[in-house]
């Protein structure tokens, strides 16, 4: 008993005793495991059930001994297990059968011993632990008084977050149909459940009868007893399962020859929960998961269409949500008075433009935000490819503060002009600086509405254009390009006119064409020393915290769902920032405090020469800069431009023992932050949202008809995978290229000019 024993596991068949007393095992399937004679009964059962995919609660075990193989002995505790090992030498046989105390309506799908009255035929498929009633006679009459067994709701959203089908075994769909009497809302829902059940059970089926009122389904394998019948309730669309014989009898050849059939409308149900939690679920990952979970080979195009069908089922048909836009806009204004919503459409009722500025955003911007707004745009990934416009400002902790959003059927001069005019209404007479990229539509529309002196160009886009100019016309080689970009940085961030002129001269010496490009591309709109207004050191549209990044997932949704998600995120952000302000240490936020501490550390070693009337001279090498603490100015202009004491001002203030934080502008302090987030915001209720009928009319449950819109003209995306070409940043960090011959940077072996030695 010291060695291991080879154990045969018999299940799903029948023991038949011959005339000579010998026992023959017919049907079912066999498995084998190696067991340790020293294990306990619980360990033995756990190993057997794990190896054979058996549920221990619904089965019992028997064994035979070598000197009398015709006698089945019960195996139910440690003592009987010890006897089995003792009276069998190198191998033993264990027979699995349904427990006598288990409800006979539940098919456990395993072997019945010779003593059982009715042998149960088991499935030979990979998934045999299906449950359900066997040989159930269909009810003759159907009435509302019969008990209803509701469907499993496999099409509903899962409460658990999912990012891949790997986290959900395909067997989760095995019980989409559980027993006779189960109710489905319509025949299509029943067919969906049937298809998912076949994927999980790895079997094919065919309809003997298939109509909305009556369906009969059988297994494709000859002589397999599996069968389901379903009938409608009278004149309604509701259908009920009558016969549910959930037992298969498949040979190994049947299992090996099984090939799942792709029905895209129903196969997309498999990935519903994954799409809900991860809208970026890639078609290539879908292909990998389908082959792994279901043995189904998909092409990229098929996977892409599965994803699109799943999105349509989850978020609804895109064109129907345009019909609901008027109702949703009215509800937003109703729940949050003071919110500005503008909905524009064509003369024939097709959606064109939408502008929303929530009352809480208008309130916060008016009372506390600095007068600077960054505008940006991105595109929705739905069927109509709408453009999303955004306008954001900054709170007292220098965090992004959403001000307004817009959804447009296109992105051109007319759309931007319409959006900016509505934005102008929101901010009223407040003078603001607008930061944007340099696309032609914005170069025309922003100066027209806000004035050219208030239009700041995003330096990141300027740098991209400059880099493209380098690549196409002037500079070759990484080193020369890096030097040119560094000169451009020094030109853009120079605060003094003198420094700007010096950097331009240096660039001109390096390459005259580059200096000419800078002078011809409106430096007064992006260079610090040239811009006439205070832009608070905001040189870009803040890509890391931009609106596009903030709503990266939501742009995959339909337009109404997008609006709902935006409001949810806005509410969460308002609450989060308001709660964080209560934990500030002192009067300024952590981001501003970090900037002040950095300036203090830089200015601690500067020599300071006091003068009259609060003016100090700070020595930086051979240069002397004047700091006026009373007027809060410095020769470097950093204090004036940012509103935070620069390193020179910090040196002067520290020399007199003054608190640097007291000289930070009020726009960065806690009272302003409290004003910004002092408004209220109510999410809208959708329990009474009307629905779009088959005739395209928007009605609620009371029959009231609402105004509706049609989708945009001519914007529907063509069928198939959309073509995308990623445009690399021209100023992104790239891996340095080294030559394997001369070991120098900037070229490879093929272009090396050093002759071979």
Gist of the model:
The protein contains 23 helices and 25 strands. By secondary structure, the chain is α+β, with helices and mostly antiparallel strands.
Helix/strand layout:
Blueprint: E1 5-17, E2 23-35, H1 41-52, E3 59-65, E4 68-75, H2 78-86, E5 91-98, E6 149-150, E7 182-184, H3 187-201, E8 205-210, E9 214-219, E10 227-232, E11 239-245, H4 252-256, H5 264-267, H6 272-277, H7 283-294, H8 300-315, H9 318-323, H10 325-335, E12 340-345, E13 351-357, H11 359-367, E14 372-379, E15 387-394, E16 400-408, H12 413-427, E17 433-436, H13 440-450, E18 455-457, H14 459-473, H15 478-493, H16 497-510, H17 512-520, H18 547-550, H19 559-581, H20 590-603, E19 608-610, E20 615-620, E21 623-628, E22 633-634, H21 638-642, H22 647-655, H23 670-676, E23 691-692, E24 698-699, E25 705-706
Parallel strand pairs: 1-5, 6-7, 14-17, 17-18
Antiparallel strand pairs: 1-2, 3-4, 3-5, 7-11, 8-9, 9-10, 10-11, 12-13, 13-16, 14-15, 15-16, 19-20, 20-21, 21-22, 23-24, 24-25
Helix pairs in contact: 7-8, 12-13, 14-15, 15-16, 16-17, 20-22
